[in-house]
C-alpha cells in the first residue's frame, strides 16, 4: 500500500488500478472515490469520535423497503442451485484459493448467498492485485494461498449471522432519522466477525510480526477500547503465510471500523445485485423499494484514476532509487 496525505484528504493505492482518493465533502463528512480495474465509484463517510478515538462511518447511498430486507434474511422454500461464474471451469482466483474457500453449489436463503458473495469479492480483488504484479501485497504463489481447514461451513454460518444482523440494522436505519451526534459507538463494536478487506500489519500478543490479507477472518474479542485506541481481536482463519489462526492481537479501532465499513459496502453491493435480479438463477424478491440517501450520495472524482497512477509511478521511482543506492 502507498499512502500520501492525511486522514480526510488522502490518496491510497493498493497496486495497479486499485485504490481510493479521499477528500473533504462538507463539515463532518468525507468522500472516497474508489478505482478498481478502471471503474470508478464513490462512497460517503461521516466522522465520529468514541472515547477519544476518531473514525469514519460508512453512509449508504440508498436504503430499501422493509419487505426487501425481510426477504433477504428469509429462507426460500427449497435450496436453490447457483452456478458461480467459473465453477465449471474454475476462474483463476477461485483456483488460487482452492482449499481455503469454496462457495456453496446451492443456497437455502439470500443471506447465505450474500455471505459467499462477500468472501469471494475480497479474494477476487486480492488475486487481481497479485496477478498485476503487486507481490508485496499478496501471496506470491498458489501453494502459499492454501490453508487447512480453510473457511468452513461453521465459519460461514457465523458470517451469515453478521449479514442478518446488518440487514436488520439497515432496515431500522431506513425508517429512522439519521443521528446527529458526533460521539457515537462504532459499528465495529457491534459486529463480531470480520472479513479482512486489505492488508494489515500486526504485532501479536506473542510479539510476532505478521500480516493479515484480504479474505482472512478475524473475531473481535470484546468492546474494551485500550488507552491507545485499540481493540482485542483473534484470527479465526487465515491463508498460509498470514497471521496464524488462533493468534491474538490488538487492532486500532479506526482499522477495525474500516473493516466494518467494507463489510457494509460489500453487503450493499450484493443487495444491489439481488434487487436488480442480476444474480441470475436465484429467485426474484419483492419490489426493492429503494430510495436514495442524500447524505450518502456523491459523484466520483474524475481525476481519481490519474492521481492514483501518478502516486504509483512516483512510488516505483523512489523504490528503484533506493534499490540502486543499496547496490
Report on the structure:
This protein has 327 residues and is α+β, with helices and mostly antiparallel strands. It has one domain (2-326). Helix content is 31%, strand content 25%. The protein is built from 6 helices and 16 strands. It has helices at 66-72, 92-96, 110-131, 153-174, 253-275, 304-326; strands at 2-6, 9-13, 18-26, 29-36, 39-50, 53-59, 62-63, 80-81, 106-107, 193-195, 200-203, 209-212, 217-220, 230-237, 248-252, 291-292. A hairpin with a 2-residue loop joins strand 3 (18-26) and strand 4. The longest helix is centred in the last third of the chain and has 23 residues, at 253-275. The chain starts with a strand and ends with a helix. Residues 134-144 have low confidence and may be disordered.
Keywords:
about 325 residues, single chain, 6 helices, alpha+beta
Write a short abstract of this structure.
This protein has 327 residues and is of the alpha+beta class.
Strands, helices and their partners?
Elements (H helix, E strand, L loop, with lengths): L1 E5 L2 E5 L4 E9 L2 E8 L2 E12 L2 E7 L2 E2 L2 H7 L7 E2 L10 H5 L9 E2 L2 H22 L21 H22 L18 E3 L4 E4 L5 E4 L4 E4 L9 E8 L10 E5 H23 L15 E2 L11 H23 L1
- Give the structural class: alpha+beta
Radius of gyration: 20 Å
Task: Please report the number of helical segments.
Answer: 6
The stretches of 5 or more residues where confidence is low (pLDDT under 50) are: 134-144
Number of beta-strand segments: 16
Q: Indicate how many domains the architecture comprises.
A: 1
The main sheet orders its strands as 1-2-3-4-5-6
Strand content: 25-35%
Average of pLDDT: 88
| Beginning-to-end CA distance, first to last residue | 24 Å
- Helical residue percent band: 25-40%
Tell me the overall shape. globular
Largest sheet features: 6 strands, antiparallel
From N to C, what is the helix and strand string?
EEEEEEEHEHEHHEEEEEEHEH
Amino acid at each position: 500500500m502507498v499512502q500520501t496525505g492525511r486522514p480526510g484528504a488522502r490518496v491510497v493505492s493498493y497496486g495497479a488500478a486499485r485504490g481510493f482518493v479521499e477528500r473533504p465533502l462538507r463539515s463532518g463528512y468525507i468522500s472516497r472515490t474508489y478505482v478498481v480495474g478502471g471503474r470508478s465509484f464513490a462512497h460517503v463517510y461521516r466522522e465520529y469520535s468514541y472515547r477519544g478515538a476518531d473514525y469514519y462511518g460508512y453512509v449508504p447511498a440508498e436504503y430499501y423497503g422493509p419487505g426487501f430486507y425481510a426477504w433477504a434474511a428469509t429462507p426460500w422454500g427449497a435450496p436453490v442451485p447457483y452456478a458461480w461464474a467459473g465453477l465449471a471451469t474454475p476462474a483463476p482466483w477461485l483456483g488460487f484459493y482452492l482449499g481455503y474457500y469454496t462457495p456453496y453449489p446451492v443456497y437455502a436463503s439470500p443471506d447465505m448467498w450474500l455471505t459467499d458473495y462477500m468472501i469471494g469479492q475480497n479474494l477476487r480483488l486480492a488475486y487481481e492485485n497479485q496477478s498485476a504484479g503487486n507481490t508485496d501485497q499478496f501471496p506470491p504463489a498458489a501453494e502459499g494461498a492454501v490453508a487447512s481447514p480453510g473457511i468452513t461451513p461453521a465459519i460461514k454460518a457465523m458470517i451469515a449471522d453478521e449479514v442478518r444482523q446488518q440487514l436488520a440494522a439497515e432496515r431500522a436505519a431506513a425508517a429512522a432519522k439519521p443521528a446527529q451526534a458526533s460521539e457515537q459507538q462504532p459499528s465495529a463494536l457491534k459486529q463480531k466477525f470480520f472479513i479482512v478487506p486489505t492488508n494489515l500489519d500486526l504485532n501479536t500478543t506473542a510479539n510476532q510480526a505478521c500480516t493479515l490479507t484480504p479474505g482472512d477472518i478475524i473475531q473481535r474479542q470484546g468492546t474494551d477500547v485500550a488507552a491507545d485506541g485499540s481493540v482485542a481481536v483473534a484470527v479465526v482463519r487465515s491463508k498460509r503465510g498470514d497471521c496464524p489462526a488462533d493468534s491474538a492481537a490488538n487492532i486500532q479501532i479506526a482499522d477495525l471500523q474500516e473493516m466494518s465499513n467494507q463489510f457494509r459496502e460489500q453487503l450493499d453491493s450484493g443487495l444491489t445485485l439481488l434487487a436488480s435480479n442480476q444474480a441470475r438463477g436465484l429467485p426474484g424478491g419483492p419490489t426493492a423499494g429503494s430510495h436514495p440517501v442524500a447524505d450518502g450520495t456523491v459523484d466520483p472524482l474524475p481525476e481519481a484514476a490519474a492521481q492514483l497512477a501518478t502516486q504509483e509511478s512516483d512510488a516505483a521511482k523512489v523504490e528503484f532509487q533506493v534499490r540502486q543506492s543499496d547496490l
